[in-house]
Amino acid sequence: MPFQDYTLIQAPMAGGINTTELTVGAARAGALASIGAGYLSGQAIEEAVRAARDGGADAFAVNLFIPGEPGATEAQWRAAREALVPCYEAAGVDFPDTFAELPGFDEQFDAMLEARPAFFSFTFGRLDQACRDACRARGIALIGTATSRAEARQQAEDGVDAIVLQGEEAGGHRGSAETRGAGQPLAALLEACGDLGRPLIAAGGLMDGADMARVLGQGAAAAQLGTAFLSCPEAGTAPAWRQALAAAGPDATAVTAAVSGRYARGLANAWMDERAPRDIAPYPDQHRLTAPLRKAAGAEWKSLWAGTGAHRSRALPVEELVATLLKECRAAG
Ligand SMILES: Cc1cc2nc3c(=O)[nH]c(=O)nc-3n(C[C@H](O)[C@H](O)[C@H](O)COP(=O)(O)O)c2cc1C
Q1: How far, in Å, from the CA of 180 to the mean position of ligand 1?
Q2: Residues with Cβ < 8 Å from 312, sequence gap 6 or more?
Q3: Positive/negative CA dihedral, 22, 23, 29, 31
Q4: How confident is the model at residue 179 (pLDDT cuts 50, 70, 90)?
Q5: Neighbours of 159 (CB within 10 A)
Q6: How far is the CA of 34 from the centre of ligand 1 (A)?
Q7: Is the predicted pLDDT of residue 1 greater than 70, yes or no?
């Protein structure tokens, strides 16, 4: 389906949230599904795409992180590692001797090209010309991400097919090239970017069809929802994370760079208060240093990424959630 046929995008969510069941269910119910492949190896991307197709999803987006600044210096790595010792201790998790490397972008990008999804979406910066040309040559449509008018204009100049405007309300990492860039409310972003001549995809804090209708009325061509899908039984969300979402009240989220070295929004826990480390390695090295802790610890030391709408989560099966969102949007539009 061409992009114009979608009003709802199930957001890419790297880290195992976008299971095959979630992708297939969202696609079957009429959303543009996404596979957050930012932490996957080339082989895992190939497998995820094959599984989605075998399950019956034909059009979906594969999403990757654009690599940015060089990683930590030796001194930054040592200081950040040291600062995390009390955090591992507090959580009762053994401090590891080694920290896993992340897959390289080139390997991921080549696997994505080979798999030829209908859409390639990306975050954390611009896609270079050679990569854009390679996608074009294979008929893969491009979806860039922006958190300011300046970034959205660059994406428009690069000729992407649609731009995700990610407001500061959004769950997960801020999709800016700037690792600590200030965010903006979604409504202000939509207003500032209406003249760029590209389809805009609104993201951040949208939880129901009335929210979708509102942003469509503000000039968006589609809405991208992440947090709303975290409570679907098909999502790969950890039990502690689901419980925290179900218990969340309004104002339950905050922003931190302590987990990964990049600003990200999640349910407030130890990462957002005085227990968080002060010395933080640049992204993605801080992510590597904190990964074993977040994996083994309870909810206080997990990354519970979620947007400002977390308290309005509905634990519905994905097909029912998509059908409900589209129905509510039509009713409110
Ligand atoms: C758990 C989680 C993981 C995310 N991972 C990614 C990702 O891998 N790539 C990406 O472009 N955006 C990612 N995002 C951001 C979403 O694309 C989207 O901007 C955000 O979910 C919208 O805000 P909402 O969560 O309030 O709906 C993630 C969001 C969440 C909640």
Answers
A1: 16
A2: 207, 208
A3: positive
A4: confident
A5: 12
A6: 10
A7: no
- Summarised one tens digit per residue, pLDDT across range 285-313 is 999 999 999 999 999 999 999 999 999 99
From atom 13 of ligand 1, which residue's Cα is the shortest distance away?
13
Helix count and strand count (H, E) for the chain: 12, 11
Q: Which residues have C-beta atoms less than 6 Å from ligand 1?
A: 11-14, 17, 36, 38, 63, 123, 145, 166, 169-172, 175, 203-206, 224-228, 305-307, 309
Q: What is the pLDDT of residue 71?
A: 87
Q: How many CB atoms lie within 10 A of CB 157?
A: 11
CA–CA dist 186, 176 (Å, integer) = 14
Q: Which CATH class is domain 3-332?
A: alpha beta
Per-residue pLDDT, 70: 84
Of residues 166, 176, 148, the one with CA closest to residue 263: 176
Nearest to 144 by CA among 215, 102, 199, 214: 199
Determine the distance separating the centroid of ligand 1 and the alpha carbon of 74, expressed in angstroms. Answer: 31
Distance CA 190, CA 186 (A): 6
pLDDT in tens, 87-143: 999 999 999 999 999 999 999 999 999 999 999 999 999 999 999 999 999 999 999
Sheet strand arrangement including 60-65: 8-10, 222-225, 200-203, 162-166, 141-146, 119-123, 60-65, 33-36
Considering just the CA atoms, what is the radius of gyration of the chain in Å? 19
Q: Whose CA is nearest to atom 30 of ligand 1?
A: 172
pLDDT of residue 2: 65
Q: Please list the residues that pair with 162 across neighbouring strands.
A: 143
Is the bond into 117 cis (omega within 30 degrees of 0)? no
